[in-house]
Amino acid sequence: MKVEHRLRENRDFRRVFNRGRSSATDKLVLYWARNRGSNFRVGFSVSRKVGNAVQRNLIKRRLRACFDRFLPELLGKPADFVVVCRKNASQATYQQLENDVLRLLKRAKFMI
Fold first, then answer.
1. What is the pTM of this model?
2. Mind listing the pLDDT tens digit for each residue in 59-101?
3. Could you tell me which residues come within 8 angstroms of residue 33 by beta carbon, excluding any fewer than 6 positions away?
4. CATH number for the domain that contains residue 18
């Protein structure tokens, strides 16, 4: 995933949490808010409750791959996304995470 599509600064995460909307599944919570730019940005929050560093990094790599897969549909949509992982995300496969991300993006009306 390109740097221009990454949400990194704490103030951006806080803005999405405070002003944005949310939707959830049993593994993930998606927060989103419109931004002033011309592209989407995404950030990930994986707590230590989910697992050790190896498991957390694996989940983040899988989620980045999911958003890379949906990149053509999300290009040109000015929104910031924050994905928060719940405990049972550590047992999820890539396919399950991809299905959850797709379901959440459809609920947020960013994908058809």
1. 0.91
2. 999 999 999 999 888 888 899 999 999 999 999 999 999 999 9
3. 15, 16, 19, 20, 21, 79, 80
4. 3.30.230.10
